[in-house]
Amino acid sequence: MSKPTLKPVPKSERPSPEAAMDAVRTLIAWAGDDPDREGLRDTPKRVINAYREWFRGYDVDPAEELSRTFEDVSGYDDMVILREIDVESHCEHHIAPFLGRAYVAYLPTEKVVGISKLVKVVEAFAKRLQTQETMTAQIADAIEDALKPRGVAVMVDAVHQCMSTRGVHHPDVSTITTQFTGEFKTNPALQDRFLRVIGK
Ligand SMILES: [Zn+2]
User: Fold this and answer.
1) Is-catalytic flag, 160?
2) 92 a catalytic residue
């Protein structure tokens, strides 16, 4: 599988806030409502502010988040596992939210990273237009590249609103994606331990 590449568009090349608000007005009219009626008048501004928050991951460099590592771990060489990291993302096919949890583990060599940094890496990729598969691979790759660990395991379990509120209308289907590298890939016992610890 080829590595997913994703280069955010530089800020200087992005449309102006006015152009983005015009686009929202167009979508409102296209849906069948009047963008100038009172209740909708400030909606374009609110939508672009919400977009800033939902898509703030484009302005975070995951490699930078992982660049500060610690080497003094007193010989700790077992898995580091983070469970139940909230994932709030948007599918790139419908710009509909998908919500769930990420589980991340790695087997350190000599470098470890602050635990909050791993959460930030998940967020950096989640707060973009995504597919769950790509996001899962990107999280694993970023940790792999930065820490050169003996292995990385990532699982994402999420419900896609483009499936629950439209299309097939299946509210209860959750999608699980996993990505294993290094020893997690070659050693099924390690995979099992990871899945057991995270309760999957
Ligand atoms: Zn979708």
Assistant:
1) yes
2) yes
Return the residue matching tokens 């500060």. 68
- Binned at pLDDT 50, 70 and 90, residue 75 comes out as confident
The rounded distance, in Å, linking the Cα atoms of 157 and 154 is 10
| Tokens coding 63 | 């490699």
Domains identified in the chain and CATH numbers: 11-54 (1.10.286), 63-198 (3.30.1130.10)
Alpha-carbon span 195 to 101, nearest angstrom: 14
Partners of residue 129 on adjacent β-strands: 90
Q: How many C-beta atoms surround the C-beta of residue 9 within 10 A?
A: 9
How far does residue 110's CA lie from ligand 1's centre (Å)?
Answer: 40
Q: How does residue 5 score in pLDDT terms, banded at 50, 70 and 90?
A: low
